[in-house]
General stress protein 17M-like domain-containing protein (Saccharothrix carnea), 178 residues
Amino acid sequence: MTSSFSGQNRPGVPPRLPTPPTGWPIGSYSTYEEAQRAVDFLADDDFPVQEVTIVGVDLMLVERVTGRLTWGRVLGTGAASGAWFGLFVGVLLSLFNTSPGASLGPIVAGLVVGIAFGLIFAAVGYGSARGKRDFQSASQLVAGRYDVLCQPRSAERGRDLLAKLAMRPSDAGGTGQA
């Protein structure tokens, strides 16, 4: 049974709730860039791309370590973050300040208080970890392969078009269109 809230009855509208993808596989690629290139190729050929879904299969979370954390780096980042927020609050306060000639006071006060709070929150956060995570990292969700699925009514045409794409020499500039 389909709910009117799932969006499944409206073509071109993604479902609001997590829903397994539907369709027939028309291509499989080792990188997202290749799958994106395939869908772009279909779009360039006036294919109904609203019937296409790119599905990442064999998902993995990749965490790339970007650097070592030290007290200096933590406090510097906390101060910078607090400074930006304090500057923002100070500018807002100065916009609503009606006293003549006192427009710089709220900005300076916001900046100083922002830096202080940034330092405090950064120090408390890093100190509470007690050396269990002394590194910075960036996480990314990556798939082992990317399948391009298509609704059955257009799958054969999509497969034929992607076969033409596969037979073209690959280039670094995209779909190879002039």
Observations:
- The CA atoms of residues 65 and 137 lie 4 Å apart.
